[in-house]
Amino acid sequence: MKYITSALYSRFEHPLLASLFIAAGVFAGLGVITQIVTTSGVAAGFFGVYAIVTSLLGILGYGLIFAVKQISEVRDNIAPHAN
Fold first, then answer.
1. Residue 7 confidence (pLDDT) above 90
2. 59 with 24: CB under 8 angstroms?
3. How far does CA 42 lie from the centroid of its chain?
């Protein structure tokens, strides 16, 4: 577990958002396994919905971080000495 956390912190800008994508992959995998094991697709559908929502939250988070960075760079370029 220590290696996983150190890898997340060293490779990603925001490791908690990166862990959302890992959780989305786990949910998607559980959905596929549930679909194969059971005859009802309702439980697999719920896992699929969880995977989609988790992915959207991660995309939203990284999108907001990107937007804030771009706004900050534009503001710095417009008025570099306005501190």
1. no
2. no
3. 24
